[in-house]
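Exercise 4. Each item below gives a protein and its sequence. For each, produce the structure-token representation.

Item: Site-2 protease family protein (Halocatena marina).
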Amino acid sequence: MVDTLWLALGGLVIYMIIVATAQKRGLLPPQVRAQGPITTLHTQYGKVLLDRLASPKRFWRAWGNFGVGISLVMMVGVFLMVILAGVQAVSNPQPTAVSEPQNVLVIPGVNDFLPLAVAPEIVFGLLLGLVVHEGGHGLFCRVADIDIDSMGLALLAIIPIGAFVEPKEESRIKADRGSQTRMFAAGVTNNFAISVLGFMLLFGPVIGSIGVAPGAPVGDIVPGSPAANADIDRGDRITAINNESIANASELDQRLTEVQDKQVEVTVDDGENERNVTVTRELFLTHSTPSVVEGVNTSGPPPHIQEIGGEPVSTRAELHSRLEANPKTTVTTDKGSFELIAGAYVGQMEEGGPLANQVDAADAEVVITRIGGERIVTSNDLTRALSDTSPGDTVNVTAFVNGTPQQYNIALTNGPGEHGYLGINVQRGTGGIVADDFGVFVYPSQQFLTALGGNGPIGIEEFISKSVSVLFLPLAGAVGISQYNFAGFIDPITNFYTVSGPLGFFGDGVFLLANILFWTGWININLGFFNCVPAYPLDGGHILRTSTEALVSRLPISNGRIVTRTITTVIGLSMFTGLMLMVFGPQLFA
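Answer:
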């Protein structure tokens, strides 16, 4: 992605040279003006339309007052968020994909989270957002009888990055503070209104017409795994194992765990054709704790497990059976051997929790192998065993602490669920490793559909909750919400979904409509938040000035202009510093 960024910068330099040469020779029309990489297109068209739209002035003033209230609340929230994020970037700098500088740019293909596949939908949402934003400014100029000099579009080279309305400065200054504030808040209000409308359509009839297709959706394939060797690919759906239908990812995992055959017949649907392939299974490590697999080379292709306690194994069913009989055993791989204690590996113990109060060493390596006489091999076994308990129950726990078996009688407490709680977090798999015999990563198709309202009608609170969650879906894989980022319903992801319901007659066009609404809502709500930053030249900076002037004018002081300038300057500089730290701090201070 760094290469793509440099290509974009190189193209920008070439564009600046060409435009500067054309401007010097007088080849640009008067409606086109250029300054550095920014090109603006000016027009006088639209003024008559704005005059007509502005005629119900009482209505627009009421809408403007509502928008001012929304904007002020958002400005306070954005101010606190930026300050806290800036402090976090200095005190605990953690460089992530989200904080990479190129990901600040809303440019598909350069921003890691805005793929080229949905560039048309993103550009449409951006253009619509810019038009309604600046259109709101222009409309409220005419509501307040502020004259407009020109309107137009701002481009970064050939990419739209903004629209503008240029009010005549002397006319704007004559308007009262309330009219100016409503005018500055109008763009933000319109962006939020477009987001609400888009999300209402998305969460309602559009997502209501999309369902999850049967089968296990393949999000990715482990290179060199049995599935890869059988030509199963990203975008496929696994619909049957040994001719037994698979409804979802859970059933796939269950069938593969139960079946002990080294070879399984897998039915695969790629969206156009269904085919049967034979998968020859072999065990390999997908995740491992370094202290557990010490001495094994985990770089490059994942280690393949060959033997457990000297006995050959090929499937998870065989692995579970061998480990159930031998809590402590030797695991032999093609890259070395290691000793494994098969049980629920404790990743973290809650200070003062039931288990922590029994274990002497705070940094001990703890593996739980029995609960109340029941053998615990995996983290799932521990979850099932605790599900049958209640807070207050006393259970006998067998655990290996730094390799030595210990017995504890532990009184369970209240936890996140209704069952008993040990006060621990355990790692997936067994004993600090996760093994697989197939090699697919499942795409969370149902999780994303549910996040977009795919579980029926929703109320106001749930609508707000889903609107907030949508902001993070393009970053879902980076912020830990999911293993994958959600870019929309694009190929080959569309193979994981079906179209029916109220808009079923549109066919695959429903996916395009969903993408347009998703990205239009996402872009507009982010435009609204960004413009609420209380700093010049953003709308938030202008609203801050007029609001501060109105507040200071009521105070019994004679130098109100100086006080206003001081307040707005301090807040503006704080915002600029916070934004710079958010973008560049993790790289500078890490």
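Check: The first helix runs from residue 2 to 24.
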